[in-house]
Amino acid sequence: MARKYNWRRVKKHFSYDIAQAAKALNCSVATIRNWTKEGLYCMADQKPFLFDGRDLREFARQKSAAQKWSMPETNAPWNYFLCFRCKGYRKPYLLMADYIPATPVKGRLSSICRTCDGAIMKFCRTDQISKIRTTLDVTHQSGSTTLTDSESS
C-alpha cells in the first residue's frame, strides 16, 4: 500500500546506508531496496551501499507528492467532496447533499460519490450553505430522528 514518507527527517548533508535510510523514513529495508530498482541512486562502489541525503530526500519527497490528492481547478470548489474509496475529490451524485448540523455554527454535508457510490462528506459552516445551494441541491436534516405515523402507534 502506498504511503507518505516524512522526507524532512532526512538530512541532506549526511550519507545513509540502507538500514539508516529505512529508519529515517520509518519504512522497511525492502522499500529502500525497491527504490534503488526504481531509480534511487546509491553509491555501490563498496559495501555498505550508501545513499546521499539529497538524493534520498528528493526521492522520498517525490514518492510522497505522488500520493497527494489535488483539488480540481474549478470556479465552484464547494461542489467537490473528498471520497476515501476513490481517493480523490468527486462531485456528489445528482448534485444532491444533506446538511446535518452539529452545532449552531457548523455542520456536515454528506452525499453519495458519483463514481463509486460510496459515502462522501465534508464539513462546512452554516453561513456557507447559501453559497453552496447555488450549485447543489441541499436538504437540511435535523439532528434528531423523527418517528413516522406508523412507527409511533
Automatic annotation (TrEMBL):
InterPro entries given in the database record: DNA-bd_dom_put_sf (IPR009061), HTH_17 (IPR041657)
Source species, domain of life: Bacteria
Pfam family membership, one: HTH_17
Positions of the Helix-turn-helix domain: 16-63
Protein name: Helix-turn-helix domain-containing protein
Source organism of this protein record: Roseovarius rhodophyticola
